[in-house]
Amino acid sequence: MNDKPKFDGYAAQYDEWFMKNEHLFSSELSLFKKALGDITGKKLLSVGCGSGLFESYIDSSNIEGIEPSVDMGEIAEKRGVNVIFHGTIEEAKLPEDSYDIVYFNGSSSYMEELKPVYDKSLRALKDGGRLILLDVPKESAFGFMYLLGKALQTYDHEFLKGVMPNLPYPLPLASSGAWHSTEEKIDILKELGVKDFRFYQTLIKNPMYTNEEPEEVTEGYKSGGYVAIIAEK
Ligand SMILES: C[S@@+](CC[C@H](N)C(=O)[O-])C[C@H]1O[C@@H](n2cnc3c(N)ncnc32)[C@H](O)[C@@H]1O
Questions:
Q1: How does pLDDT run across 67-95, given as a tens digit for each residue?
Q2: How far is the CA of 173 from the centre of ligand 1 (A)?
Q3: Whose CA is nearest to atom 16 of ligand 1?
Q4: Cα 125 from Cα 116, distance rounded (Å)
Q5: Is the pTM of this model over 0.85?
Q6: Which of 1, 3, 4, 7 gets mutated to test ligand 1 (max ligand atoms within 8 A of its CB)?
Q7: Is 66 in the pocket of ligand 1 (CB under 6 A)?
Q8: 109-142: per-residue pLDDT in tens?
C-alpha cells in the first residue's frame, strides 16, 4: 500500500463511534461472537484487527492480528491481540495450514481486490478451518447510505434530511470504503473452491432506528446491515 493507511488518524474516532452507538455495537458484537463460536484452544488470525475493540470482549490470548494502521495496531496490542504484521494482508506472508479461523471483521470493505486475499487466507487455514467474513453489505440500507455519502461527499444534504441516524459512521471512513455485496464474496469463495457456507445477520432495522436497542442475530444474509459469511475449507 503506497498511500497512507485509511484508518491512520481515526483510531479514537472509530472506537468512540461504537461506544456512542452502544446498541449497534452490541448487535455487531453478538454477531461476531456467534460467527466465531467456541474459540477455546483454537488459533485465530484477525485480518485488519483495527484497535482490537471486538477482541477486547473475548479471550484474545490465541488471536494474532494484521493491521496496516499504526494507531489502530498499537491499541490492539494493548488490548491483547498479538499483531504479527503491521501492514496490509496483500503484503503479509502467511504460513500455510496453520489457523483454525481466519476472519475479516469489517476489513474486506477497505480492500478493492478480494480474490487474492481470500485465496491467501484459505491457504493459511488448516483443513476444516473457517474463513469468516463480517461486513456491511453493499446492498443493505447501510451500504446505500455510505455510498450516497461517498457520492455526495456529505451526509448534510436534502436527500438525507430527516432519515439519518443521530451519529452516522464518520464520512471519511464511509467514503474510503470499497463496499462489496455478499453475493460478490460468495461467488469469489465458490471460485476458490469453497462449498460449505453458513450465514448470520443482524442490524435488520433501518439505520435511523438501529441504535434504539440491541438486535437479535438470525440465520441468513438477505436483510442484515451486518452479515457474517462462514466458509469452511
Ligand atoms: C472497519 S475497520 C475494522 C477494524 C476491526 N476489525 C474492528 O472490527 O473493529 C477496518 C480495518 O481494516 C484495516 N485494513 C484496511 N485495509 C486493509 C488491508 N489491505 N489489509 C489489512 N487490513 C486492512 C483498516 O486499517 C482498519 O483497521
A1: 999 999 999 999 999 999 999 999 999 99
A2: 11
A3: 110
A4: 15
A5: yes
A6: 7
A7: yes
A8: 999 999 999 999 999 999 999 999 999 999 999 9
Distance CA(203)–CA(223), nearest Å, equals 8
DSSP letter at 193 equals T
DSSP letter string over 93-139? ---SS-EEEEEEES-GGG-S-HHHHHHHHHHHEEEEEEEEEEE--TT
Cα–Cα distance between 25 and 41 in angstroms, integer? 26
Q: Report the alpha-carbon distance of residue 10 to residue 151 in Å, rounded.
A: 21
How many residues are given for the chain?
A: 233
Among all chains, which residue has been given the C-alpha cell 455510505?
146
Q: Which residues contact 64 (CB under 8 A, 6 or more apart)?
A: 43, 44, 45, 46, 81, 82, 83, 84
* Ligand 1 atom closest to 32 (CA): 8
Here the cell at position 40 is 477455546
Q: Which three cell numbers stand for residue 113?
A: 481486490
Quick one: 70 exposed, middle or buried, by C-beta within 10 A (0-12, 13-18, 19+)?
middle
Give the C-alpha separation, 30 to 54, whole Å: 10
Stated as kind and residue range, the H or E segment containing 226 is: strand 226-232
* Nearest Cα residue to 206 out of 151, 154, 160: 160
- Domains, the chain, in order of start with CATH, read 11-232 (3.40.50.150)
